[in-house]
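Example record

One chain of 339 residues, shown exactly as stored in the release files.
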Amino acid sequence: MRVFATRRIPEAGLEILRRTGEVEFGVEAEDELVPRERLLEGIGRADVLVSLLTERIDREALEAGTRLRGVANYAVGFNNVDVDAATELGLPVTNTPGVLTDTTADLAWALLLSVARNIVPADRYMRQGRYKIWGPSLFLGGDVSPGGEERRKVLGIVGFGRIGQAVARRSIGFDMRVLAYDPPMREVIEETEGVEYAEMDRVLEESDFLTIHTDLNESTRHLISGPAFEKMKRTAYLINTARGPIVDEKALVTALRERKIAGAGLDVFEEEPAMAPGLADLDNVVVLPHIASASRDTRNKMATMCAENARAHARGERAPNCVNPEVYERGAYRRRASS
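Predicted C-alpha cells for this chain:
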C-alpha cells in the first residue's frame, strides 16, 4: 500500500502510517504548500490520501486517484474536500472529530481575555521599554466578569456543537449570562443549564462577547458582516476560532477602525494565510496563526485518529470517523476496495 500525505503529520500518526504502507509526502517543510502538480501526481500514485486543510481536494484531485481507497483528512473540518464528488467516486472521507474540543475552547477564551484586557499591546509596551510609571488610564480594557460595573456580561455563542458547549461551560467561572444561536441545536440549548436560546439579531444586540463556533457552509459564509457589526454594541468583542469566511474580514477591519465594536480575537482568516488589508495595523485585534488545536496532546491524538482512519481505508474496512458513510453501499466503493 502507498500512502500519500500532502504534508507531515505528528510522529504519533506517522508510526501507524508506516506500518500501513510506504509513505510519501507532498512537501517536507512545515511552512510550504504543496504545488498543485505535485499534489495531483502524488494522489495518482496513492492507495490512501492523507490531506490537511491547507490542500484543496476537489473533483480533479479525487479523479486523479485512480487507485485511491479513501481520504483521511487531518482536521475536524472537511470543507477542503469535495465530499459529494468523493461519494460519487466511491471514496470514503474521514475526519478527526471530538479530540480538539477542549483545546479549541481554551484558545477561544485565551483570545477573549487577551483582547478584552489589552494583553498583547501591553506586552509589546513592556518589551519596548516604554513603561515608566503606573497610571490610572494605562491600557484600559473591558471586564469579562461583573467587575466594577457589577453587571453580568453577556456571552453570545453562535454554533452550539461540542466546542460551543465547552465554551459555555467555561463561562460559569466568570458569572456570565449566555445566549446561544444554533437552530438545529435549539433543544440542546434550552436543556443546558445557564444557557438561553436567542435568535441571531438578539445575540448580536445583547452580547458583550460574541464567539463563533459554527460550521462553514453557504448559510454561514459572511454571517458576520457589515449589518451584523451595526447591530453589535460598540463595547463588544468578536472572537472567531471556527472558519475565516464566516466573518467578512474587510467589513471587520472597517468596524474595528471606526470603533463600531471594541475589538476582535481571530485564529482563522478569510484568505488564510493572508489577512485583509489594514487588519495587522490595528491595535484592537489579536491575530493568531490558526493554532486553536495546537497543544502537543491534541495534535498527537488527531494524528493517531487520522492514521487509524487511513489504515481502515487501506484495508477496505469501515473507517471509524467517516463523514459520508453512505459511500460504503455504493458499487464504486466496492470496486475500489476489491481492486
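Notes: The first helix runs from residue 11 to 20.
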